[in-house]
Amino acid sequence: MSKVFNKTPLSFSDQITLLESRGLLLPNKPKAIAYLQEISYYRLSAYFLPYQTTKDIFDTDILFEQIISTYTFDRELRLLVFDCIERIEIAIRTQFIYTMSLNYKDSHWQDNPNHFITPYYNKIGLLVNPYGDFQTIISKAKTARTPETFIKHYITNYHKPANPPSWMCFELLTVGELSHLYRGLKNNADKKRIADFFDLHPSVFTSWLHTITYVRNICAHHSRLWNRDLAIEPEKLLKPKGNWISKPFENNKRMFYFLCLLKYMLQRANPDNTMKQKLEVQFNKYPDVPIKFLGIPSDGKGNLLDWQNEPIWQ
Predict the structure, then answer these.
(1) Fewest CB within a 10 Å sphere: which of 52, 60, 172, 240?
(2) Phi/psi of residue 121, each to 5°?
(3) Single pTM value for the model
(4) Distance (Å, rounded) from C-alpha 62 to C-alpha 54?
């Protein structure tokens, strides 16, 4: 049965009073108010929960600075993850372009509807039409008031084919649109050739690309990664080609599994990546932030398992 929302807005001073009444220590109230003015109480409240064994009551000796430290840790983690996703996204785009272009010996293969599934309506009545959607994106780019430089160059210098080649058109796509287009390829052999670069089965690659899109959007909207259950879970990698993780780390609902899949894909796209070193720096910079809430398992006695010695991280 639904309830009536009856919470009233609180001033920043009243928010401080509320936090104190719940046991949070605020030795520097003016500084705390400055943070609340910048970040907002509601946004910070998501970081309260792991420090409250009892609902709305902070554990003993929790400082407001601990909440801010956790928030800052999460912000920097988003930047690290976003950087990794960018590198993987570019590699996927590159493999997509050249695998299809070279296999079909066609610079404009994206303009051939035979490469894509037949449009259909999904369970909620929306039209799924990857080919048509891509053509719409290209058309809008060509008719934009201020088109991208490379699009303007093509339409100024060439009249046929009507669209730019695939390697130009793919620069117009977001990672979500790449995911949509990959799922929309008709031939499984095409999907396999692209996924093979990352040593993944096409079904796993499809799932991971979907989750990457989801997490990328979390990062872009400055939402929380720390202590989050993934709403779009990546499929488990049951047959890895090369180093992976052991059973205790296979919680694909949590963020650490996602960090592992990023590392797996980066190993193929950028073998000299420094993701592990950056994570170590991040964790060492914030020793008081409990990284177990990323999904790093423990031994049952409260001791975290050594993620650094997992095969994927060595």
Answers:
(1) 60
(2) -100, 130
(3) 0.94
(4) 13
As given in the structure block, the two tokens for residue 206 are 């499809």
78 and 256 Cβ atoms separated by less than 8 Å: no
Q: What DSSP string describes 111-175?
A: G-GGGBPPPEE-TTS-EE-HHHHHHHHHHHHHH-SS--HHHHHHHHH--SSSSPPHHHHGGG--H
Is residue 260 within 8 A of residue 84, CB to CB? The reply is no
Q: Which amino acid is at 40?
A: S
Q: Please name the residues in contact with 191: beta carbons below 8 A apart, sequence gap of 6 or more.
A: 182, 185, 202, 205, 206
Q: What is the largest CA-CA distance in the chain?
A: 72
DSSP 3: -
Residues listed for the chain: 314
185-196: b (≥16 Cβ within 10 Å) or e: beeeebbebbbb
- CA distances in angstroms from 177 to 6, 25, 108, 180, listed in the order given: 41, 46, 18, 5
The tokens describing 280, both together, are 């170590």
CA–CA dist 162, 154 (Å, integer): 9
* Residue-level pLDDT at 238: 95
What is the tens place of the pLDDT at every residue in 249-258? 999 999 999 9
61-107 pLDDT, tens digit per residue, is 999 999 999 999 999 999 999 999 999 999 999 999 999 999 999 99
